[in-house]
Amino acid sequence: MANPKIKVLQTPIFKRQSKKLFKHRKKELDIEINAIVIDPAIGQRKHGDLSDVFVHKFKIKTELFLLAYTFDPETRNLIMIGSHENFYRDLKKYRR
Q1: What CA–CA distance (Å, rounded) separates 64 from 81?
Q2: Distance between CA 85 and CA 90 in Å, rounded?
Q3: Residue ranges covered by each domain of the chain
Q4: Cα gap 48→36, rounded to integer Å
Q5: What is the value of pTM for the model shown?
Q6: CA dihedral (46, 87, 66, 26) positive or negative
Q7: Which of 22, 29, 89, 94 is deepest in the core (most CB within 10 A)?
Q8: What percent of the chain has pLDDT over 90?
Q9: Residue 53: which of 6, 26, 14, 2 has the closest Cα?
Q10: pLDDT in tens, 67-86
């Protein structure tokens, strides 16, 4: 189970995107978020403009989702979730 001392923060865009998911997808998303809370290095560190961002890729049924986040010892900041199409472009635009 997730460490209760770790805070999970959500950006407004993450909240909007996760709200649009179906219930069964939200349950899968919660499982993946718990995995990030337990082991934040599960994702792949990005380079260049996004060097502080990690992206965790996971599938729900057959659809691939990407979850962008940053972390430090006390917090996990969930930035964006979505499919691969235009994900990095939108992430860079949001981070500016």
Answers
A1: 11
A2: 9
A3: 7-95
A4: 22
A5: 0.91
A6: positive
A7: 29
A8: 81
A9: 14
A10: 999 999 999 999 999 998 99
